[in-house]
Amino acid sequence: MSTRDMPLIDHAAGSDTDLYPVFEELKLNRYRLVKEVLAETGHDWQLRTFRSQVIALYAAHTLAIDYWYQEEPHTADSLLMRARVLTQRIFALQLPMSDPAVLKAAEQARRACHAAIQANPRCPAARVCLLALAQFDADPRYKQKQHDHWAPGPDTLPEGPWPLYWAVRQRDPENREAYQRLLQFFYARRDGAHNVAQWLATSAGECSNLHMVPLYAHAEDYRQRRDRGASDFTYWTGYHVQRYVQWARDRWFAYLDEQTRASPVLSMDFNLLAWSIDKSGVGGAGPVFEAIGPYATAMPWQTIDNRSNWVQDFLKARHSALAEQHVRY
Q: With pLDDT > 90 as the criterion, what percentage of the chain qualifies?
């Protein structure tokens, strides 16, 4: 089946089909398959980070990981998933970051993260959780006791959870969730996200997915503008935004081999890149849509514009990109 004829699959696991039966088992508060798929990742830190994040989205609403931790409280994988689930449950509370219940839950999750790190120091995923938790300490009005994540930024960048970020990148230089969590910290602080994103991209080498960071920053900025009722149709066609879209396309995506493009870890990056190319009009999204295949992700198609007809938007953008590619070649 050609790319243009593929029906869309809207699922957080994307092309990682090994995860699909895991979610069915989680509904029954069972963890056997979670244990198996995590064990299969070995030292593939990107896949381990991705799988533990996606599993936690579902497991946070069940007791499966709680039961696993009760039965195996000292294994590295059960400790990691406990840290993941406790972190995810905080976001599900949807309470202000200064709420005492949130701060108490964040401290419990931090302790779980440190236990997971002690059990498997080489794995970056628990440190990524600590990066996610850092945003609950981002507002100086409610700053808690000094944790191990505060430090001045490189060059003239603001202080933040830089030690945690560097610790993750030491273990997994291309860990995509790490830079997303770093940006979320600066979103929560309402200052510095764009400067951080631009610095990371301009300091990145060829074939680095750090070239995607400005697109996430611009997507969040654009989403917030839309939420405020602003209709800035020229936002993505400005030169400074188009430049970063082109960098992500030409300095990162263009270098990826076929095996890398098939990785479920990069599905959201590919979707955001295709969306950004379509919005900015820079062209060349055909190969990106081919890498996406049928696996559309909620971010960006559903979450940025908050449109009910996102499927039509995706199909229209894909059709145009593939038509352009056909004409070009």
A: 76
